[in-house]
Amino acid sequence: MNAKIGGDAPASDGALALQVRHLVKRYGDSLVLDDFDLNVRQGEIFGLLGPNGSGKTTSINCILSLLTYDSGDIKVFGHEMTPTAYVLKSRIGLVPQEVAVFDELSVQENIDYFCSLYVAQKDRRKSLVDEAIALVGLEDFRKYRPGKLSGGLKRRLNIACGIAHKPDMILFDEPTAAVDPQSRNAILEGIQRLNQAGATVIYTSHYMEEVEQICDRVLIMDHGRHVAEGTVDELKAMVSSGELITVETLDLDGDAMAALRGLPTVASTDYDGKTLTVRCKSGARNLVDVLDMLERSGANIGHVSSNPPTLNDVFLEMTGKALRD
């Protein structure tokens, strides 16, 4: 499947924070990026999803000009990205998946060091460091060294180091991996505040609920190729999966189950003697049809719920894999 909805580039490159066209990258005989395209509009939070080995990390390293590639074009804010495009690189922030800070420096010293790579003026840097510390909620930990911080606080420090110089575009690679719920919420809220302040965000995650929560548009890639792109709702509309219906009932018989399986939009059913679960294909009347069939069978119906397809359902149908495969 290769589908694009809502992913066409605006007429002018000036409206794009990032444009990747026909990117090809090989490692020996292995084709890692296969004519890969990506357009990220200025001011949006853009989700980049793919199973392990899909080419996400390679594409990010090519975008940052940390890797050479065989062919294709990469433009950042309308300008060609090259290894020596230092002014352009100063407009980019990277928050890597692995925490990359200096253990011998304090929280404040770490952030100041990374900020100094882009901002020479001490007075200006002090203000930026203070803002970064406040953004990630580390005010009470300024003098702590990383070894004294919890995993979640280290992640927040990692983010502060990547964004202190106020980049126009920020790449977040799994920023909430293995953190506690409180830190996860703080990180997601911080990312949204950065975006509201004007930063364009590219976000990779294995947590589908995070992507649904914060991303304006999402691209799914697999085997180095652009598989599908759009808003979460647009992606859900591309697949055959419909809602998941659950019904509490104690008296379903074999005839009723057979009748349910015979409905044209029912994909699968499961009944454990207490709860009926019906997975439907895409359709406008799924819930009505299921309830009508149950009433005709004489079943007593208790609590009923209907949940629309999730982004994980979309991902599984389009790639044939779970996100962590």
From TrEMBL:
Keyword Nucleotide-binding: yes
Superkingdom per UniProt: Bacteria
Domain ABC transporter: 18-248
A GO molecular function held by the record: ATP hydrolysis activity
Name of the top EC class for this enzyme: hydrolase
InterPro entries hit by this protein: AAA+_ATPase, ABC_transporter-like_ATP-bd, DrrA1/2-like_C, P-loop_NTPase
EC number: 3.6.3.31
Keyword terms of this UniProt record: ATP-binding, Hydrolase, Nucleotide-binding, Transport
PROSITE patterns reported in the protein's UniProt record: ABC_TRANSPORTER_2 (PS50893)
Record's protein name: ABC transporter, ATP-binding protein
Lineage: Bacteria, Bacillati, Actinomycetota, Actinomycetes, Bifidobacteriales
